[in-house]
Amino acid sequence: MWCLVAVAAIAVVAVSVLVVRNRALGVRKRQTEAALTQKLEAVERQLALSRAELKKFTDEQDAAIQAAEQAAEESTKAVLKGAARFLQSLAAEQTTLLDNIQRKYGGHPVLADLLDVNHANAQMARKAQGIAVMCGAPLGRRKQAASVYDVVRSAMGQIRNFHRVEIMQQSGIALKPSAVAPVALAVAEILDNAASFSQHDAPIEVTFQRIQKNVCIVIDDAGVGMSDEDRQKASALLSGDDIARLSQLGTQPKFGFPVVGLIARQYGFKVDVTGFSRYGGVRAVVLLPEELWTMEETPPPVTEAPVSSIRRVESVEQTAARTVHGLPKRGGRKPPVASVAGTGGATSGTAIPKEGPRRSGGGLGALQRGTLEGRGLDASEPEGSEEA
Q1: What are the angstrom distances between the C-alpha of 190 and each of 33, 145, 158, 184, 207?
Q2: Phi, psi at residue 336, to the nearest 5°?
Q3: What pTM does this model have?
Q4: Whole-number Å distance between alpha carbons of 45 and 262
């Protein structure tokens, strides 16, 4: 009996000791966890500060790099803009000299070679203009509208293989003055691209379509076409959303699509190259909204006034001269004078000058001069000038 009581007492004491010990261990555990939690929070705060400092440093570094790249880009653009403007002025001066030579020596056989020189000069001027546009220079402007047909002909005269381009129809549509220069440059770049990526004898067709309130210049080539990746890149460039830097154009820069996308975005028209031509090549569409075009004004036909009568003009002296018997004296013969209806009865002895002979030229001459002289498409001034 006493043994059982002793065992029970020992068990109670042991349980009490274990309870006290467990409580002490729990207290120590909670204290340790609290200390570790505080240390972890301190470390996390330090890590957050370190991350914030690292992000700040990274942002500053990125901003410095971006500012340096932007400064380098602007500096490069300024240099190229000045060089391009200088080349454009030389090209314009050379064009003026060639025009004077062609007018002075109209029938000389050397004019065929001069037209080739003028054609090469037009290509150089287009390249210089594209570089200037990429560098932020404005295009020229006009004060008069120009036919879409003549604008495309002007663009043809600025590419190498112009003889492969065929305009399939007239349009009766004219571009407003603000749209002449940008559309001409865009079409020239597209035609040059079509001629460069197709066979030397492959045709390039240009048609005009009116779709609702828009006018489309459709250019079909027979080239090798583009892959899906190339079409996506071209669409991004032509949309104007992806503005390529000069440093990204490579050692042999291609200014075509970047220039077209830039001026399309600035002047409010669209260019699409995702279609397929009937020859298996690329179909490029230049879509002009109604703000950029109008109907071409057709001058009334010039009709000659009919001759109402042929009569003699008798002088007062001839009428008064009579013989002694009262008969009129015969005078000298006078040339007949035509009386033109609608002139109020007035007559004139001044001869009407005949129209001088028109200048004629083959292929390239008719292409370049026939359009440009009549419409003055290349007689443009920098943007903002009131002269055209």
Answers
A1: 73, 22, 11, 10, 14
A2: -65, 145
A3: 0.60
A4: 48
